Amino acid sequence: MAYRVIPVTPFAQNCTLIWCPETREAAVVDPGGDMELIEQAIAQEGVQVKQVLLTHGHIDHAGASATLARQLGVSIIGPHRADQFWLDGLEQQSAMFGFSQVEGFLPDRWLEDGEQVQVGNLTLDVVHCPGHTPGHVVFVDKANQMAQVGDVLFQGSIGRTDFPQGDHATLIDSIKNKLFPLGDEIRFVPGHGPESTFGHERKTNPYVSGRWG
Ligand SMILES: [Zn+2]
Ligand SMILES: [Zn+2]
């Protein structure tokens, strides 16, 4: 997998352009905003975007989805349908967080745990990881040991759980029992901040490393 992280929005959300080096087919993961930066990256890399992928329905991840997908003529895939209330509330989110008006939408395809998404010759496994939001999904390229985890896990931290339908115990369970078993070697791009690996977080992240936790 080849990829380029594009920090977008006032929340410095890690929108990621991922592509198959063999076919140069690409996907944009979590286009929260700053569409001109995303379009610039697509043009610079010379890749063919075929889809928009969403980890969850928060505005800093999903805000530019409808506009970008229409502009590129591609579908929006994900998250899990349990996040529909967040997408339905995108306009309220834009007012609450001071974003310019965003276009509401429903994805072309909801995702379920265990499904797969193709990007060229890359296969991404879909892992449903509720806790930060109920419909949060993570995309894992097992062949290349690379994951897009959104706001589930960060270097040294975990996602917030104080939003509606957030739940701390559920989030910890998602990380420990769904992500970490995928293997220490898996490198991940989180929704915010620097990259890390599951192994590094399993050993050092204070929220999920304790034997007692
Ligand atoms: Zn979020
Ligand atoms: Zn976020």
Question: What is this structure's SSE topology?
Answer:
Elements: E1 2-8, E2 13-19, E3 25-29, H1 35-45, E4 48-53, H2 59-62, H3 65-72, E5 75-77, H4 84-88, H5 90-96, E6 116-119, E7 122-128, E8 137-141, E9 146-150, E10 153-154, E11 157-158, H6 168-179, E12 187-190, E13 196-197, H7 198-204
This protein binds zinc ion (2 copies).
Description:
The chain is an alpha+beta fold. The protein has a single domain, classed as 4-Layer Sandwich (Metallo-beta-lactamase, Chain A), CATH 3.60.15. Helix content is 25%, strand content 28%. The chain has seven helices and 13 strands. The strands form three sheets. A six-stranded mixed β-sheet has the order 6-7-8-9-12-13. A five-stranded mixed β-sheet has the order 1-2-3-4-5, with helices on one face. Strands 10-11 form a two-stranded antiparallel ribbon. The longest helix has 12 residues. The mean pLDDT is 95. The protein binds zinc ion (ZN) (2 copies).
